[in-house]
Amino acid sequence: MKWLNLAGLAVLGVCTVSIPLTAAIVLSTTGASDILSIGGMTPEHHHETPANAVSDIRCVAGRGYYALTFDGGPLPANTRQLVGALAKARAVATFFDPGERAAARQDLVELQRSVGQVANEGYTVGNMARVSQARRYQELQGGAKVLDYPNVFFRPSLGDTSSAVEADA
Questions:
Q1: DSSP letter string over 13-44?
Q2: Which of 55, 72, 77, 167 is the most buried (most CB within 10 A)?
Q3: Residue 99: closest CA among 159, 131, 47, 147
Q4: Which range, 21-30, 97-106, 121-130, has the best average confidence (pLDDT)?
Q5: Span 51-73, mean pLDDT?
């Protein structure tokens, strides 16, 4: 009887470990997984609210209002030049950065902050309207964590949105 109980527990243990592990491996190799793996994302800096951060570097529009926004950065090929041009013009911009790119180039994110605010474009560059709600939450939270809270604005990559994306954001 004792051996039967031990054998049953052993089978149960193997099933609870190997089946989910096998499913995860199969999903990751087929690309069918809807789970975003972000890793450790503890913000290194805490930034003041974007409105306060840019309040002393605003330019004054002669007529009407305008907003300069840039998506998909920071990119080593053009971020420094873009920030330099904005600084020379005393212009303020909002940079919508994917968290994945921002995590890889925190130096460029800090440079962007010198002429404006950095906002959330999700964690990866993907279509937010085509993923599950759980994945959208992971994307939004992942991007926000990498960029440090608070993030006032969100813009989905490539403008791919839906009523569900807007509600979740």
A1: HHHHHHHHHHHHHHHHHHT------------S
A2: 72
A3: 147
A4: 97-106
A5: 70
Residue 32's contacts (CB-CB under 8 Å, 6 or more residues apart) are none
Domain locations in the chain as residue ranges: 1-33, 43-168
Which CATH number among 2.60.40.640, 3.30.470.30, 3.20.20.370, 3.30.1330.10 corresponds to the domain 43-168? 3.20.20.370
Amino acid at 4: L
Residue 12, pLDDT > 90, answer no
As a whole number of angstroms, the distance between CA 82 and CA 72 comes to 13
pLDDT of residue 125: 79
Phi, psi of 161 (to 5 degrees): -135, 170
Rounded CA gap, 123 and 75, in Å? 15
Residue 8 φ/ψ, nearest 5 degrees = -65, -45
